[in-house]
Write a structure and sequence with these properties.
elongated, Bactericidal permeability-increasing protein, domain 1, 3 domains, two-stranded antiparallel sheet, 47% helix, alpha+beta, 6-stranded antiparallel sheet, 396 residues, Serine Threonine Protein Phosphatase 5, Tetratricopeptide repeat
Length: 396
């Protein structure tokens, strides 16, 4: 049993950071970055309980510093809690995310998903429509709205059927009760010696005096003798071996549907992704350059499965892309942290941005204009290269 000074996270592999409690703001911010990175790794490894603890640690640290709340943390914890089937908690996280940043579109998807699981159809549709207003071109919203409307109709129909069935049961119980009162049980007759027992309906008495079912056919001694001579009913040894024909899919006769194959591709991804991204550079208009220096912390799943002649590509990656920049004598560095990089064209990548602590203050405006934005500058180039890499992976 844990004592008052023991570590409550001692059983968790992230106990070292979960137990930390820095008092100064700089220490808290450093710890937040550490637990965020670990949370992404835990999510990639499908370790949802650890991911929830780590995101909760980051959120609680930022709550102690006014104005430091980060909307993506609530959205990410909502996603984790949906995976853990903690639907009410996921809904609260989605609401907290939107309270922090009303334009954070993924939070509307988490909110709508949680409300759908709670059968709050109208609120779920409203949340999805709010997301559609922010992303009119994203088909996922209309699909979510259509599904919620169909589920709402199905739920209403099932409730109506339950109500009708309950009414029918009440009527049947009433009729049965009335029948017992108006139709008392008949008086049982005494059985005569040569009369068949009517209380044993469906049964009869055999020649040996035993009772058996009417469906049982007695075999005469003559019939038994004939059966014994013919040998019917005796086990016969099969000397011929069973022929093992080749199945349609290349397997044995027991696998007529075909074969199943799975190839792990994460090793290839870890080799190729840095080759694709390292060296990408963006020439700054005011002079200078910002370029990708390394790709680190690649984790997740990558595989190709083949079943019944069809191929399916699975990709679910997290990684960080480090950059360096130089403008005159000023230098800086930082990184893009990617998660949810997969083969689904309708699912956007999650990207968070970090600036190195030793970056020159004069570069902040340049970073905000030419490095950080998703659709232009360096991140635009990186995103385009990642999308091309995913497309090539799907073509393997």
């Amino acid at each position: 049993m844990a004592g008052p000074t023991s570590n409550p996270y001692a059983g968790n592999r992230h106990a070292d950071v979960l137990h930390e409690d820095p008092q100064d703001e700089a220490g808290k911010l450093r710890l937040v970055e550490e637990v965020k990175n670990r949370a992404k790794g835990a999510f990639a490894q499908k370790d949802m309980p650890s991911a929830e603890l780590l995101y909760s640690k980051a959120i609680s640290l930022l709550e102690t510093m006014p104005g430091k709340a980060e909307a993506p943390l609530y959205s990410n914890r909502a996603m984790v809690r949906l995976n853990l089937n903690k639907v009410e908690g996921a809904l609260e996280d989605a609401k907290s995310c939107l309270s922090t940043d009303p334009t954070f579109v993924k939070a509307y998807y988490r909110k709508a998903t949680a409300l759908t699981r709670l059968n709050e159809w109208d609120e779920a549709i409203a949340a999805a429509e709010a997301g559609l207003a922010l992303e009119p071109a994203n088909k996922a919203w209309s699909e979510l709205i259509d599904k919620a409307k169909k589920d709402k109709e199905k739920d209403a129909e099932e409730k109506a059927n339950l109500k009708r069935d309950a009414q029918d049961v009440r009527v049947e119980l009433h009729n049965a009760s009335t029948a017992r009162v108006n139709n008392p049980a008949p008086v049982k007759k005494e059985k005569k010696e040569d009369e068949e027992d009517i209380g044993m309906r469906g049964y009869k008495t055999r020649s040996d005096g035993k009772t058996t079912s009417y469906f049982h056919t007695e075999i005469t001694d003559e019939a038994k003798e004939l059966i014994a001579k013919q040998g019917y009913g005796k086990p016969v040894k099969l000397d011929a071996p069973v022929e093992d024909k080749e199945g349609k899919g290349g397997g044995s006769s027991w696998n007529q549907a075909g074969t199943y194959e799975e190839r792990g591709m994460i090793k290839l991804v870890k080799e190729k992704l840095p080759q694709v991204l390292k060296g990408l550079k963006f020439d700054l208009p005011q002079g200078g350059v910002v370029s990708v220096s390394d790709v680190i912390d690649i984790a997740g799943d990558a595989s190709i499965t083949t079943a019944r002649g069809k191929r399916k590509h699975l990709l679910d990656l997290t990684f960080s892309v480090e950059y360096e920049m130089k403008v005159g004598t000023d230098t800086g560095k930082g990184k893009f942290c990617y998660s949810e990089v997969n083969c689904d064209a309708d699912d956007d990548m999650e990207v968070t941005f970090e600036v190195g602590s030793d970056t020159a203050p004069s570069l902040k405006g340049i970073i905000d204009t030419y490095v950080k934005p998703q659709g232009q500058g360096l991140q635009g180039m990186v995103n385009e290269a990642i999308n091309k890499f995913v497309a090539e992976f799907k073509a393997i």
